[in-house]
Design brief:
Length: 254
């Protein structure tokens, strides 16, 4: 959920914004108010603020000075200035120092909703970049212990080899990773994606069972987690270039 700080010395403007906008639809759950820059700055110091709507012309501390200090405290906060034409040059200056956008008075519901949509889009994009960096750091940390992690993943896969419903999602649930990160980690450590690795292990076990037991093809399929024996035969032929019967004949002639 997203937090919003509205900074304006006119109570009617703050009330109008809070009354007119459907914040639930925008996923904004927490709304703070301040009537000047000094008061707003204290709010930023003591709370996590995601979005700011701030008037430029305010007493005690104007909006531009407030935003400059607020961005130093919270660089990831997305900010839009509310201004009149007579202070438009300040708004343009604000854009140059990191403010995301501005809206001109008098503001309507459409104006506020539009500017909030822009801020939210930038906020979400920044968070996604941050999450990607976090994942990269996690991966770098894990790669320092590649051998142990590789063994862990291999053990999990081997344990579920006969489970026809076993999937990357289930492996993610068991290991505590999200599927996107786990998919990258798996490919990095084992040199192949999860699905191909699982099929390779199943087919290798199929070869062992073909040579050491008298099980029928459908029985082998059940033991290696493949429901359809025809699919097993097709995969075997594609991977090894021999049908199952050709493989058995070849091995018996050795």
């Amino acid at each position: 959920m997203i937090s919003l700080l509205i900074v304006d010395d006119e109570p009617m403007i703050r009330k109008g914004i809070k009354t007119l906008v459907d914040f639930d639809a925008l996923n904004i759950s927490t709304i703070y108010e301040a009537e000047n820059g000094l008061e707003a700055l204290e709010i930023v110091k003591n709370n996590k603020i995601d979005l700011i709507l701030a008037d430029i012309n305010m007493p005690k501390m104007n909006g531009l000075d407030f935003v400059l200090q607020a961005k130093q405290l919270s660089p990831s906060t997305r900010v839009a200035m509310i201004t009149g034409y007579d202070h438009l040059d300040y708004a343009i200056t604000a854009l140059k120092v990191g403010v995301d956008d501005y809206v001109l008075k008098p503001v309507s519901k459409v104006d506020i909703v539009a500017i909030l949509h822009k801020l939210i889009a930038k906020f979400v994009e920044a968070n996604q970049e941050k999450e990607a960096l976090t994942i990269a750091k996690e991966m770098n940390s894990d790669f320092q212990n590649d051998s142990s992690m590789k063994k862990t993943l291999s053990d999990y896969v081997n344990k579920h080899l006969a489970d026809t419903t076993f999937s990357l999602q289930e492996l993610a649930d068991e290991t505590g990773y999200n599927t996107s990160y786990l998919s990258q980690l798996f490919k990095k450590l084992l040199g192949v994606n999860f699905r191909d690795h699982l099929l390779h292990l199943r087919l290798e076990k199929c070869k062992i069972l073909l040579l050491t037991t008298n099980l029928k093809i459908y029985e082998i399929a059940q033991q290696i987690g493949i429901e359809d024996s025809n699919y097993l035969s097709a995969c075997f032929k594609r991977v090894y270039g021999l049908s199952i019967s050709e493989f058995k004949d070849q091995q018996e002639r050795k």
